[in-house]
């Protein structure tokens, strides 16, 4: 009886450890997600700034794009379209990140709950023993 | 002491451990210093930007500038800056635009504005955080001092003063009641101002009525002047609540009896009119102003006179009651009012500081305001 209870408690302990590992993985993912999101939001802000400035430019203004070490002359309309496309892409990316973040947080919560239940079971087992 | 339990007393330190509050405050302080660093960085950017604006403004003043051109990491060689009105401005994301000095300055100014708005919002955040920190600090010290929080449900029907002294009311409810009360007071003082004008107008109409009554009394009963003057006191038993209204009532009442006839009455006053009977009259008229109940006579010798006095007085009072209710419509609210005031005062004295912590959010909001 005593041996069986100790073995079951050991199993529970193992399960708990595995769950804790999963949880920490999820948390890492979440923090990574946050970092990426931060980067994208900054880029979005910069792009919006550029778009605003491009809108303010005259039609005949010379616009260049820095590609590697060289400045390449670009059409204003083309540059404008490029920036708009980039903004679209970034916002889509942000949305995607949001949904994944939500997913991750749900997973995290369920894992936390599972761990809490396991801990309670372990406590109960200890109390019995 | 045998009374049933009305509320709960919890020491503040059991809800918010002083160490925890201290920790929270320290944490908030850290966040504040972080934000302040950010503000400093932004401020540095802003300063760079303004100096750049100045330089860009100055450059086209001359056709060319003699400068030292950086060459590699440590070397410089003399050179000349020409085309001083042509700028290649980085718009961000690798996009450059050719601009003149003026146009460049405009772009830079727009960027400066963006920076300023960022600094402003950060400062607002810091202000909020500082309030939060001070709140945590206060809670910590209060908890450390061993202040207790007293909670009790407020029972309106079974209210009396003894209870009020022992009741530490809920902080939030207290504030609400205080606000209600202030609003009512404001409303009433407005109404009273209006009423005052009306009252003056009414006085002329009502005074003759009084005079008739008084003359009748003068014929068969010696009435003391005091008893008349006391009339306002009972009817104005709500004085603490509305000093303004009371004054008006008093004015109105004491004006009428003080008329010419009344002076004569006072000269006729005999010493037989005793104080106790007068006070009883006052009491009865205060308890039920509009009813015509006669007052139990204390002195058998002038029992009839007293009842008539009471009747006349209650008539007067009822007059006033009807008048004031017509003019001001505050009679209903008064009773509840007095409770409120007493309650709030008592609540403040019995439970001075601890309760705030029971409603951290509301307190915090209050402070922010």
Provide key terms for this protein.
heterodimer; A: 129 residues; mainly alpha; Helix Hairpins; two-stranded antiparallel ribbon; B: 369 residues; 13 helices
Shape of chain A from CA axes? rod-shaped
Which percent range fits the helix content of chain B?
Answer: 55-70%
In round numbers, the mean pLDDT of chain A is 90
- The termini of chain B sit apart by 41 Å
Low-confidence stretches of chain B: 201-207, 221-369
Order of helices and strands of chain A: HEEH
Rounded mean pLDDT of chain B is 66
Strand content of chain A: 5-15%
Helix-strand string of chain B: EHHEEEEHEHHHHHHHHHH
**β content of chain B, as a range?**
5-15%
Query: How many domains of chain B, as an integer?
Result: 2
Q: Bin the helical content of chain A.
A: over 70%
CATH topology tier name of chain A: Helix Hairpins
The largest beta-sheet of chain A arranges its strands as 1-2
The biggest beta sheet of chain B is recorded as: 2 strands, antiparallel
Q: Which chains share the greatest interface?
A: A-B, 21 and 14 residues
Present the secondary structure layout.
The complex is a heterodimer of chains A (129) and B (369).
Chain A: H1 2-56, E1 63-67, E2 70-74, H2 76-128
Antiparallel strand pairs in A: 1-2
Helix pairs in contact in A: 1-2
Chain B: E1 7-11, H1 12-15, H2 18-58, E2 65-71, E3 75-81, E4 87-92, E5 95-99, H3 101-145, E6 148-152, H4 161-166, H5 171-220, H6 225-230, H7 232-235, H8 243-255, H9 260-268, H10 275-287, H11 303-327, H12 331-350, H13 360-368
Antiparallel strand pairs in B: 1-6, 2-3, 4-5
Helix pairs in contact in B: 2-3, 3-13, 5-8, 5-11, 5-12, 10-11
């Amino acid at each position: 009886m005593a041996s069986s209870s100790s073995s079951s408690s050991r199993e529970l302990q193992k399960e708990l450890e595995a769950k804790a590992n999963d949880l920490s993985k999820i948390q890492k993912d979440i923090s990574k997600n946050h970092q990426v999101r931060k980067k994208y939001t900054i880029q979005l802000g910069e792009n919006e700034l550029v778009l605003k400035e491009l809108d303010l430019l005259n039609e005949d203004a010379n616009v260049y794009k820095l590609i590697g070490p060289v400045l390449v002359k670009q059409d204003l309309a083309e540059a404008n379209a490029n920036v708009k496309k980039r903004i679209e892409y970034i916002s889509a990316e942000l949305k995607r990140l949001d949904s994944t973040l939500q997913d991750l947080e749900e997973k995290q919560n369920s894992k936390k709950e599972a761990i809490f239940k396991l801990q309670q079971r372990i406590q109960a087992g200890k109390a019995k023993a | 002491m045998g009374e049933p339990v009305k509320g709960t007393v919890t020491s503040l330190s059991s809800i918010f451990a002083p160490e925890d509050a201290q920790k929270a405050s320290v944490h908030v302080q850290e966040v504040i210093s972080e934000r302040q660093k950010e503000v400093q960085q932004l401020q540095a950017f802003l300063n760079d930007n303004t100096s750049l604006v100045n330089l860009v403004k100055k450059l086209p003043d001359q056709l060319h500038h003699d400068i030292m051109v950086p060459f590699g990491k440590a070397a410089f060689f003399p050179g000349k800056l020409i085309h001083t009105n042509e700028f290649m401005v980085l718009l961000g994301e690798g996009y450059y635009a050719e601009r003149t000095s003026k146009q460049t300055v405009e772009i830079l100014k727009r960027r400066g504005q963006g920076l300023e708005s960022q600094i402003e919002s950060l400062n607002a955040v810091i202000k909020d955080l500082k309030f939060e920190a001070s709140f945590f600090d206060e809670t910590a010290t209060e908890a450390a001092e061993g202040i207790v929080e007293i909670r009790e449900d407020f029972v309106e029907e079974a209210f009396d003063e003894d209870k009020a002294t022992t009741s530490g009311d809920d902080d939030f409810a207290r504030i609400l009641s205080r606000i209600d009360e202030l609003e009512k007071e404001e409303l009433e003082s407005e109404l009273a101002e209006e009423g005052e004008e009306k009252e003056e107008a009414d006085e002329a109409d009502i005074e003759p009525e009084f005079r008739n009554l008084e003359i009748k009394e003068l014929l068969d009963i010696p009435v003391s002047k005091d008893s008349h003057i006391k009339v306002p006191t009972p009817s104005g038993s709500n004085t603490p609540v509305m000093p303004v209204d009371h004054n008006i009532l008093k004015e109105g009442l004491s004006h009428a009896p003080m008329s010419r006839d009344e002076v004569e009455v006072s000269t006729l006053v005999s010493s037989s009119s005793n104080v106790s009977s007068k006070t009883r009259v006052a009491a009865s008229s205060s308890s039920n102003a509009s009813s015509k109940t006669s007052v139990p006579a204390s002195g058998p010798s002038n029992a009839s006179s007293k009842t008539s006095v009471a009747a006349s007085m209650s008539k007067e009072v009822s007059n006033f009651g009807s008048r004031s209710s017509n003019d001001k419509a505050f009679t209903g609210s008064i009773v509840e009012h007095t409770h409120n005031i007493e309650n709030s005062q008592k609540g403040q004295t019995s439970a001075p500081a601890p309760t705030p912590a029971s409603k951290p959010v509301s307190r915090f909001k209050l402070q922010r305001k």
